[in-house]
Amino acid sequence: MKILMYGDSITDACWNRNSAIGAYDSYGVGYVRSIAGALIKRNPKEYTVINRGIGGNRIVDLYARIKADVWNHEPDVLSILIGINDIWHEIGGQNGVDIDRFEKVYRMLLEDTLARLPNLKIILCEPFVLEGYATKENLEKFLEIKEYAKVVKKLAKEYGAYFVPLQEDFEKKAKEYGAGYYLFDGVHPNIAGAELIADKWLKLFDEEVNK
């Protein structure tokens, strides 16, 4: 089973662009590595995990590179985590993606991908944010990600994709231990945050996707 992980820096997590698929540094140091490790530990012959996250990406960037980085690999499972940069780029440089355009482009990505790969199973991960040093100054704007997350959940239902909820789990852990232990700047996961994503993803994969 070939599983392709698609998204921004949260997925990217410093994977080595020069490495072959399956090399030790081809997964990055984030949640993708945790998922790959868990699956390959079960059966190294059964699972191939490919990281195609690129830091700074928005939904429009994912759509622009969908052929080279997804379709050409012909995965069995596509997992997408995107959304926070669509807001962050607007705050930082007025180059974000508003929610209506976000939905339109995400819908195009799903429709075009399913037309190309009709047997593909798709997992949509909920974008998330917490208060941290990178987000607290514009926290109200960053919290609009919850509305983007509603779009992602709606699209998952419409297109028969699977949905991984994450925001509520991050909020619960932040109350218990502090946000910085999970998202070190309010956006990017550290080890605890990466493991939280991986655990939620693997639970859904085992219970719903890998049947």
What keyword list fits this structure?
211 residues; alpha/beta; five-stranded parallel sheet; 5 strands; 12% strand
Would you mind describing this structure in some detail?
By secondary structure, this protein is an alpha/beta fold. Helices cover 48% and strands 12% of the residues. The protein contains 10 helices and 5 strands. It has helices at residues 9-12, 31-42, 59-64, 66-69, 84-93, 99-116, 139-142, 145-158, 167-177, 191-209; strands at residues 2-7, 48-53, 77-81, 121-125, 162-164. Strands 2-1-3-4-5 form a 5-stranded parallel β-sheet, with helices on both faces. The two termini are 12 Å apart. The model has no long low-confidence stretch (mean pLDDT 98).
Briefly, what is this?
The protein is built from 10 helices and 5 strands, in the order E-H-H-E-H-H-E-H-H-E-H-H-E-H-H.
* Average of per-residue pLDDT values: 98
Low-confidence stretches: none
Q: How many β strands by DSSP?
A: 5
Category by helix and strand content: alpha/beta
The total count of helices amounts to 10
Helical proportion, percent range: 40-55%
* Distance between the first and last residues' Cα: 12 Å
Largest sheet: 5 strands, parallel
- So what's the overall shape? globular
| Radius of gyration computed on alpha carbons | 16 Å
Order of helices and strands: EHHEHHEHHEHHEHH
Q: Strand order, biggest sheet?
A: 2-1-3-4-5
Strand residues, percent: 5-15%
